[in-house]
Amino acid sequence: MALKQHLAHKLEQRLSPQQIQLMKLLQVPTMELDQRIKQEIEENPALEEGADVDENEFDEDSNEEADIREDEDFDIGDYLSDDADYKTQISNKGKDDDEKVIPLSGDHTFQERLTEQLHLLDFTETEFIVATTIIGNLDESGYLNREVDAIVDDLAFSANVMTSEEEVEKVLSVIQELDPAGVAARDLQECLLIQIERKQDGDITKYTAKKILEDHFEEFTKKHYTKILKKLEISDDDLKEAIEEIVKLNPKPGGSMKESGGNFQQIIPDFLITENEGVLTLTLNGRNAPELRVSGDYKNMLKKYAEGAVASKSDKEALSFVKQKLDGAKWFIDAIKQRQNTLLLTMNAIMTYQKEYFLTGDETNLRPMILKDIAEKVNLDISTISRVANSKYVQTDHGTLSLKYFFSESLSTDSGEEVSTREVKKILSEAVENEEKRKPLTDEKLANLLKDKGYNIARRTVAKYREQLNIPVARLRKEL
């Protein structure tokens, strides 16, 4: 088939650079906005911090500033040259590419801490290699999920160390004596046994706990307490005390070190809602409204080039550079202002929609609300509302909450009233909290309880809500 050329009209919708910049700024939380502004100021010399200065001030001082700049050795070519000293890397990415930075942790991993403890042991060179290989095969929780024979093969092929399963088991038992207690176990039962054995001091309760873990671990995990009572011939109080001792143990010894050395993120609210005599007041965090201005030097520089004749290629490049930076600064300032207006407009709509909750703090007063409801009120796209709600927080008289907290699906009651699914989850949580722990409520009983309150919900839906609330099934909630 022969190739042919033809003309065709095509209509497309494309986002302008300003719209793309605004969308990116909308989803940036307050904590990251400072860094984003500093980055823009570093990249664009025509953008400065501080309140905008009156244009008349520039006109009055223009002659004086011009004399100063003539005395200075200022060359616009320094900004245009590709060989500038400050340019240490080349970026081939597009302007709209998101910058993804991987944070680096400065804390030691639990494997590194275990290796440090190895140097205090009287190991031979071969045993030390075996020990480091075992530690290197531990997962994040501190468990050894590889078989001993597989480790023997690894040592033979990778380290050229010939050893046996008995020697690896011997080194493994030494590692299991290191801190944290329970590390290098091959399953949960072994992990808990290692920890409880370290606590053995003649206490009958700890001995009972050890027997439960050794001989009746399956019954313990399934909470078949009646079978354990019969086999061990102990009282309910003895079993309860032994279980309390087991619950104190750490099922993830490797994760304990990771959590203790972890960094905790501080939440800075983007909005503040206060209530005074039934009137709600919304304010935007001041860090969301920075004072930015276009550089006066660049404005005067553009006037200077506009007044003179632009003939040479270097003058045209300099003029183009100055215009580009000035436009970029104005676009960024406009985007920041639009961001402020959009944030306030959206949050004000949410505050009005959920007024009863903000006044009372009662979760059952939350109205069903989806992104579309707010988008229709503020005449914005749903994707814009989603960007505003993402990673944003509001400080209220009832705590600091994520904006996503206020969005939930609706549910119809027997009377035809539309209620939030969060209200149903609140009732489920209270029912589970107040249930008799010896006989926890099943999903079917919870569904019947909700039906009695006017919420016609199927058992499957109750199970889904229960899982979303991280509430285990009735059998696993059983207590003595």
What does this protein look like?
The protein has 480 residues and is α+β, with helices and mostly antiparallel strands. It folds into three domains: 110-259, no CATH class; 271-406, no CATH class; 410-477, Homeodomain-like (Arc Repressor Mutant, subunit A, Orthogonal Bundle), CATH 1.10.10. It is 52% helix and 7% strand. The protein has 22 helices and eight strands. The strands form three sheets. Strands 3-2-5-6 form a four-stranded mixed sheet. The chain has a two-stranded antiparallel ribbon with strand order 1-4. Strand 7 and strand 8 form a beta hairpin.
Sheet with most strands: strand arrangement: 3-2-5-6
- Could you list the spans in which at least 5 consecutive residues all have pLDDT below 50? 57-106, 258-263
Average pLDDT level: 80
Helix coverage percent: 40-55%
Element pattern in H and E: HHEHHHHHHHHHHHHEEEHHHHHEEEEHHH
Total of helices? 22
Radius of gyration from the CA trace?
Answer: 33 Å
Q: Report the principal-axis shape.
A: extended
Quickly count the domains: 3
Report the span from N to C terminus: 82 Å
Biggest sheet descriptor? 4 strands, mixed
Strand content: 5-15%
Quaternary organisation of the protein chains:
single chain
The overall strand count is 8
Structural class of the secondary elements? alpha+beta
